[in-house]
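hiii, so i know i said id send this last week but things got crazy w the move. better late than never?? heres the sequnce for the chain we talked about at the cafe, plus the structure i predicted for it. fair warning i was half asleep when i ran it
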Amino acid sequence: MKKIIPAVIILIIGFAVWYLSGGTGTETDIEKLSVHYIDVGQGDSIYITSGGEGMLIDCGESGDTDSVISYLDNMGVTKINYVVGTHPHSDHMGGMSKIIEHYDIGEVIVPHIHDSDTPTTKYYEKFLTACSVKGLSLTEAELGRKIEVGDAELKIIAPVSEDYSNANNYSVGFIMHHGDNSFIFTGDAEELAENEMIESGSLEDIDVYKAGHHGSDTSSSEDFLNIIKPDYAVISCGEGNSYGHPNDITIENLSKFTDKIYRTDIVGTVVFTSDGKELTVTEEKAQ
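okay and structure toks below
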């Protein structure tokens, strides 16, 4: 009997360690994730990194992209595995040619745009030229495609349709999972596109929501929010912008789900860090 007791004790200790680590050895080995909602004024730019890999979603206006490059350079970024231009508006892709020229790029993802809506603007032509010079072809966003960035997995959930009268609704959208934590990115998708995401059945409870269209009342519809039920929200907008973003109605609707609303016009760049279980938030200008 004396020989059995130590074995029982070892078994109990082993079970306790297994249980506290989440029941498997995988959770303890997960690479941390950081999501940087970079302050680019009245625009969008998000950098996701885990396990030495990275994805850049948008880069703001051309004049603001220099600050994005400085930010990434200070992080030691030299290669970006995935560059996503959510939709061809200058506040999202204005300086994308600079990003393409400056970094080693793995893949460039853009939405399928109907021929009649293909941009002829100078910044978009420069973007296409930069891709051509570096031998990069454009990959059209494929609904349902899954992309891994380190230990994070992103799934493309938008655009659902192939033709829109409003370019905002072409926005490439993602849901990202990292362990127990989830994020959603929808660019400038408006209520029409949000309803399509609802109807497609791709939505779920989400921890962190990057508010659509800079907090405009054209996005973040009540039906959409009632499904994703965010615990945190980030609004990327410029201080004193002429559009009145974020709209009071949007703030009111978001406040029904969370009081953790981070605005880049107030707190600057916001960084979420995930270890697969817990989330921590860092504000550039802590209030």
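btw The first helix runs from residue 4 to 20. thought thatd interest u
miss u guys!!
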